[in-house]
Design goal:
Elements: H1 3-16, H2 18-32, H3 34-37, H4 42-62, H5 66-81, H6 86-107, H7 112-163, H8 167-179, E1 185-193, E2 198-205, H9 210-216, E3 219-222, E4 226-229, E5 235-240, H10 243-257, E6 261-267, E7 273-281, H11 290-335, H12 341-356, E8 358-367, E9 370-378, E10 386-388, H13 393-400, E11 404-406, H14 409-412, E12 425-432, E13 435-445, H15 451-516, H16 520-548, H17 551-573, E14 576-582, H18 590-611, E15 615-622, E16 626-633, H19 650-659, E17 663-669, E18 673-681
Parallel strand pairs: 14-15
Antiparallel strand pairs: 1-2, 1-7, 3-5, 4-5, 6-7, 8-9, 8-13, 9-10, 11-12, 12-13, 15-16, 16-18, 17-18
Helix pairs in contact: 1-4, 1-6, 1-7, 2-4, 2-6, 4-5, 5-7, 6-7, 7-8, 7-11, 8-11, 11-12, 11-15, 12-15, 15-16, 17-18, 18-19
Length: about 675
């Protein structure tokens, strides 16, 4: 009897003992491998073993291992997922051999034929162990490699969020990691886009060609279009921005339904939707497997963290930019109170545009019954410069005194009042003392204006209004100073030059009368006096002209102007006058140099008129953070608190020091001398 016939007899014996073999093998597996079978339901174990014996007898009847190979292939993955190792698998096979050997012993009488059947079974199991062991070992190796690849991808995803400082590069790297979960995979990460109110591509990887990538960039997930469903059941519409993209959009639903492509939600820790990852394969007829979906979902937890990190970084950058702009406007208020209105308006326009990243900004200020365009920066600009308050949209917002977000300028703003290029606008009133004095207009932010923009610009507008008020008051103060200076010059002209000229006239008349009477000597004396009066009037006039606009101050700076005046003081009064300059001399603002120069003149005048000093010195010290001027004489000195208010020109010195925010100290000791010290901040 040949081997084939012997195996057929063995198959008959096993079929006759089928139920007994199933029960025996189940008992042996629970005993020897409780970690795998103790918790398995009995009917499931019996069903599995019954199928095993059926395929075994079929292999014996056909004298082929093919039926058993099919059985092991269909159950191997399940066994691997349960953690059954190769040694467990081989042990199970040998326990099965024991059970069928017992069935043959029970079913076949003791004879040489029974021994031959058992020998044939031994040969069969040699081949069975070899084939099963190799295939199962290969499956285990592949599973381990796949697990290693999964771990590698998860680690790569985790690494991406910790090692990349650029959020966009992080998303692009994660798109690459996600694409590598599939054979020839590709991935597009869609995120919320406030401008289109849909989900737009933000990062992608693995497109089959640059043209294909460009087409995908025009695809949007929105509320309209063909319906597609993401993993988890959320539905989206799909639409396209152009004809190229529409071709791709048309095929996406079919690819998703065939599982050639899938949508995976990217959700925050609070379960809100950040976006969608669209993942597929460039391999024809590819199907995404359940374990691949599980891996992708694991990686997407990292993608969600990356999206939140990117949003956080963007928010922090925005806050920093806002703080910097507010700081610059605050500095304009604190450090440059003399800034002109035109300059302040320019700074406000530029900084407001920078804060919210808009393309254009304008300021309208109230002028009677109109709003007048006073400053503009960037584009688009307004079509006209005058807007009646009573009949325009801007006038309506001004009268309400509340900020307005314009989401569609072409519909919400009348045609005559806006540019054809204006899309979105943020209009914020400028308030002074509870009254709206104008409007700050911002145009065309890429993502549209939101409540955060409104809140920060309202805060900014408050500081901007203060800066405008400060500039206006400064200009009014300058006008008052000019008026006071004119009055002072008028008094000086009256007290000196005018009176001197009047005296010249009288003296000329007297000389004329003397000459007509023949009193030549008297006339000569009167003409000589007339000459002296005229020269004094000329000196007084030159002094007034010098005080009005010292040429040395304009041409040589503060040190040169003071040195020139000190040279004059030395000649006129015989004082020993010295100037010392320490540090690197630099030009200050025109108003600061003018006030310091006039303070020096006032102090030198006090020295020559009152102190009876022999020596006077002026020391200018230029430091990085300040400029210091010290005027010292060795005169009589005085008791400061015993002087009348404003005595010896000290009131003028104090007022001028206050105008330039200088720290003023006056020290004087009777019989020793006087020292006047001024410290001016470097920002002046």
């Amino acid at each position: 009897m040949n081997n084939k016939q012997l195996l057929q007899k063995a198959a008959a014996a096993i079929r006759a003992e089928h139920d007994v073999c199933v029960e025996e093998l189940a008992s042996l597996l629970r005993k020897h491998q409780p970690q795998h079978y103790a918790d398995e339901k009995p009917f499931e174990t019996a069903q599995h073993l019954s199928s095993f014996f059926t395929h075994l007898t079929k292999s014996m009847d056909e004298h082929s291992l093919e039926p058993l190979s099919i059985f092991f292939a269909s159950t191997a993955q399940k066994k691997i997922s349960r953690g059954i190792q190769l040694s467990d698998m081989l042990e199970g096979i040998m326990l099965g051999k024991y059970c069928i050997s017992q069935a043959i012993l029970r079913h076949t009488p003791s004879s040489e034929e029974r021994n031959n059947i058992l020998a044939a079974i031994d040969l069969l199991y040699v081949d069975l162990n070899k084939i099963t062991g190799e295939k199962y070992a290969n499956l285990l190796t592949a599973e381990r490699n796949a697990e290693h690849e999964r771990i590698k991808l998860l680690l790569e995803a985790t690494k991406a969020i910790t090692s990349f400082t650029n959020p966009q590069k992080t998303l692009e790297h994660l798109a690459q990691v996600l694409s590598e979960t599939l054979d020839q995979g590709f991935c597009i990460i869609f995120l919320q886009n406030s401008e289109t109110q849909g989900l737009a591509p933000h990062a992608s990887w693995g497109h089959s060609s640059p043209e294909y990538k460009r087409c995908f960039e025009g695809v949007r997930l929105c509320t309209s279009g063909d319906s597609i469903t993401a993993i988890g059941g959320e539905s989206f519409g799909i639409c396209a921005l152009n004809s190229e993209s529409s071709v791709i959009a048309e095929h996406i639903p079919d690819k998703i339904r065939s599982e050639h492509m899938a949508l995976f939600p990217i959700k925050s820790s609070a379960a809100s939707l950040h976006g969608i990852a669209m993942i597929g394969s460039n391999t024809p007829h590819y199907t995404i497997q359940p374990e691949q979906k599980e891996l992708i979902e694991g990686i997407l937890h990292t993608v969600s963290a990356a999206v939140e990190l990117a949003a956080s970084i963007k928010d922090k950058e925005r806050q920093l930019k806002e703080s910097e702009s507010l700081r610059r406007v605050a500095n304009l208020l604190l450090q440059h109170p003399e800034a002109k209105t035109e300059y302040v308006l320019t700074v406000i326009c530029d900084e407001a545009r920078n804060i919210v990243q808009s393309t254009g900004s304008q300021i309208l200020l109230k002028d009677g019954n109109d709003l007048k365009l006073c400053c503009g920066s960037g584009t688009p600009q307004l079509p006209v410069s005058i807007f009646p308050i009573a009949t325009t949209k801007y006038g309506e917002i001004l009268q309400k005194g509340e900020a307005a977000i314009i989401t569609d300028a072409q519909k919400e703003i009348p045609e005559a009042e806006r540019s054809v290029a204006a899309n979105t606008m943020l209009i914020v009133p400028l308030i002074q003392c509870g009254t709206a004095i104008g409007l700050l207009l911002l145009s065309n932010k890429e993502t549209g204006f939101d409540l955060i923009d409104k809140n920060i610009i309202e805060l900014f507008a408050g500081q901007a209004s203060m800066a405008l008020r400060n500039a206006t008051l400064s200009e009014q103060s300058d006008k008052l100073v000019v008026a006071e200076e004119r009055q002072r010059l008028g008094r000086e002209l009256h007290d000196s030059v005018t009176q001197a000229l009047y005296a010249v006239t009288l003296c000329a008349d007297a000389a004329n009368r003397s000459m007509s009477r023949g009193m030549q000597e008297t006339a000569a004396e009167q003409l000589h006096a007339l000459r002296e009066m005229a020269q004094q009037a000329m000196r007084d006039m030159r002094s007034l002209i010098f005080d009005l606009h010292p040429p040395e101050l304009e041409n040589e700076g503060l040190g040169g102007a003071i040195q020139s005046r000190m040279n004059s003081v030395e000649i006129r009064s015989g004082l020993n006058a010295k100037l010392y300059v320490q540090g690197e001399e630099r030009r200050l603002t025109h108003s600061t140099e003018d006030e310091l120069f006039r303070i020096a003149l006032e102090a030198l005048s006090n020295t020559t008129k009152h102190s009876r000093a022999q020596d006077v010195s002026v020391t200018l010290t230029y430091a990085p953070e300040s400029v210091t001027m010290v005027i010292t004489d060795n005169g009589n000195g005085f008791e400061i608190d015993q002087l009348p208010t404003g005595g010896m020109g000290l009131r003028n010195i104090r007022e001028r020091a206050q105008k330039i925010h200088a720290e003023l100290t006056i020290n004087s000791t009777k019989g020793v001398g006087t020292t006047i010290t001024l410290i001016v901040p470097a920002t002046r």
